[in-house]
Amino acid sequence: MKSAWDRASLPIALALVDLVLVNVAFMVAYWLRYTFEIGRQIPEESFVSLEEYFPLQILLSVVLTTSFIAFGLYRKPIQRGLVDEIALLLSSSSVGMMIVLASIFLFQAWNWSRLLFIYVWALTLLFLSIWRLIKRRLVVALYHRGLGVRRAIVVGNNPISLMVMHLMATDVGLGYKLLGFVAEGDLQPVGRFPCLGSVDQLGQVIEDYRIDEVVIAVPPSSHRHIFESVSRYQESGVAFKVVPDLYELSLRQVSVDDLRGVPLIGLKEAKLSPTSQFLKRSLDIAVSLAVLVGLAPIWLLIALAIKLDSPGPVLFRQKRVGRDGKEFEIFKFRSMRQDAERQRSTLEDLNEVEGPIFKIREDPRRTRSGRFIRRLSLDEVPQFINVLLGDMSVVGPRPLIPEEVAKQDDWHRKRLQVQPGMTGLWQVSGRSDLPFDEMVLLDIYYIENWSLSMDLKILARTIPAVLTGRGAY
User: Which of 155, 191, 231, 446 could form a disulfide with 435 if both were Cys (CB 3.0 to 4.6 A apart)?
Assistant: First the structure.
């Protein structure tokens, strides 16, 4: 029942493709340097034939491929994100090239071109990155056609199992076809995820739905009963994976001490260190100034279009709830009629989003210019002013209005521990198409796992999300 992508031969095949591309990069680098003489002109006495470079080519191929393997480039090659894989490729190729250069420095007896090494390194990185982009598009295309996907279910109907189901259902590149979940107690569907039966019926569900993988996302106290079925179905090829019970106890939020040898675990507040706050604030200011100042003519044209399209101010102001429940005034380009807020109460029945958020896909209050700027999220641009004022961050949980916050469950309020943002994990993972609970879970994951690289990845993913307009209304 295992998919073709899980076979041990896949990493070997990928390594062989990389080996070929490294040699192609070397050949192209040689032609650029010695045939086209890109860089300084080569004196006749310094010319080195391709045959004389053959030992170096072999050395590069062996060392770079070994470096790729050592850095884990072929472990989970499909599931890893593209940005993470290219970053890993950059690190491993750089280390490999430094090892080659060190070896040449110690043992070389030929008059080899130093520029050639730069060309080989750059072309290797370029060719292997392009190959990975193509590979991902091919794999996703196959997954869309149902080829190579793993039929999966989740055990549990708690917040962490909902997070797992969301990730498995929305990230096509993971290669899952999520059929639903089994649970104890309430067997009702959770949002868009159907309940296939009780935990007692796990074995029957595996057989009926021809399951390839089971993800167990329940507390350890429930594991014993579930594991009774594991050995039987593992023999038939079903994979079982367990999600650590760290939803309430994130590793980033604990400190470990001891009491005369007895380990004590203390809970820490989920907040950024002073250094992290400085880095995040610096990124906020740099991005905000670049967008507001660099593209000022476009914002002036949008303001003019809004003014000519309908009566009322260019900017829309609204109270939102920020960090620690503090209210502030948010700025947006006005995309609706001037009396839109007064009409909201009459449109509650048209709300299309679960939970406390109010959203209508075809909102009758929108103006002609508003339809365009909302589609590309251009109405959000003035919020960079809020970022400069310190009320918001570029990346963070989306700020809600006070009435929406008042309707939230207690666990939802964890998203108020950090500065709200213009974009975030849920905006690049489905935007308004996601149920509210899934949005909150993504916000909580962001809070507990923040890093500068995560902010940069979210910003990079925001651009295609905005351009495609998926989930924006």
Answer: 191
> Which of 112-121, 183-192, 425-434 is most confident?
112-121
pTM over 0.70? The answer is no
Superfamily for the 150-242 domain: NAD(P)-binding Rossmann-like Domain (3.40.50.720)
Report the pLDDT value the prediction gives residue 259, as an integer from 0 to 100: 44
Beta bridge partners of 330: 318
Residue 50 corresponds to which amino acid?
Answer: L
Amino acid at 424: G
- Please give the structure tokens belonging to residue 435: 């149920």
- Reading the block at residue 211, the tokens are 């399951």
Distance CA 253, CA 249 (A): 7
- Please state, in angstroms and rounded to a whole number, the distance separating the CA atoms of residues 435 and 190: 10
Least Cα distance to 425 among 97, 170, 43, 53 occurs for 170
Residue of 466, 320, 452, 469 lying closest to 395 (CA atoms): 452
Using CA atoms, how far apart are residues 176 and 170, in angstroms rounded to an integer? 9
Residue extents of the structural domains in the chain:
4-144, 150-242, 274-468
Q: Which tokens go with 71?
A: 């850095």
Nearest to 420 by CA among 393, 438, 441: 393
Q: Write the pLDDT tens digit of every residue in 260-298.
A: 455 555 545 556 677 888 889 999 999 999 999 988 999
